[in-house]
């Protein structure tokens, strides 16, 4: 992995919400590609243990961190722990974020529900970013990848899931702002927006991929895009929002031509 004028062998990623679903697929993909990975989980302890077991079998190094990222102190501690353990973080993948399962009109959401969407999808990222960015600046290299949702980059909105859509649109704006602010330090920031990915939190782990239509993006598809954005070779991509939706936009145009 090239960084500045030299070359190092260790690559370290920090993945929030990496214990299941898309986060787990991303962690496994990065491990396969030789990364050392710290990842957070909350309730998915057995899944986190299985990731550690798989990593040990392949010689990879992982650091599972149990944390409730809705709480500021736990989010800060998680990022700090990863940085302290490895001494560096080359890539920060923000996958964590609660999803709205019960569809409601905006006026029907409680203050707590609305706050959870903003804190989980937006504030938690900001808390951990502030811990990690000084190390990236100092070393002249960093990759930040956030996970969005359909239309987040265009602030397209989402009827009856408005707080979630607003949080993801805000995250897209933060991602692009970081891309502008940090490029002079060799840090890029990009967003990946999964399309119709099935399962809890609209996520799908690798081992569920075979049951899904070939036109539907699965966890591994999204994880490979995320992984590329983490690589040094992605340095020309900065401030982008990539939709991984199985070509849904093109199919729509064809069907309505």
TrEMBL record:
<dbReference type="InterPro" id="IPR002347">
    <property type="entry name" value="SDR_fam"/>
</dbReference>
<dbReference type="Pfam" id="PF13561">
    <property type="entry name" value="adh_short_C2"/>
</dbReference>
<protein>
    <submittedName>
        <fullName>SDR family oxidoreductase</fullName>
    </submittedName>
</protein>
<dbReference type="InterPro" id="IPR036291">
    <property type="entry name" value="NAD(P)-bd_dom_sf"/>
</dbReference>
<comment type="similarity">
    <text>Belongs to the short-chain dehydrogenases/reductases (SDR) family.</text>
</comment>
<dbReference type="InterPro" id="IPR050259">
    <property type="entry name" value="SDR"/>
</dbReference>
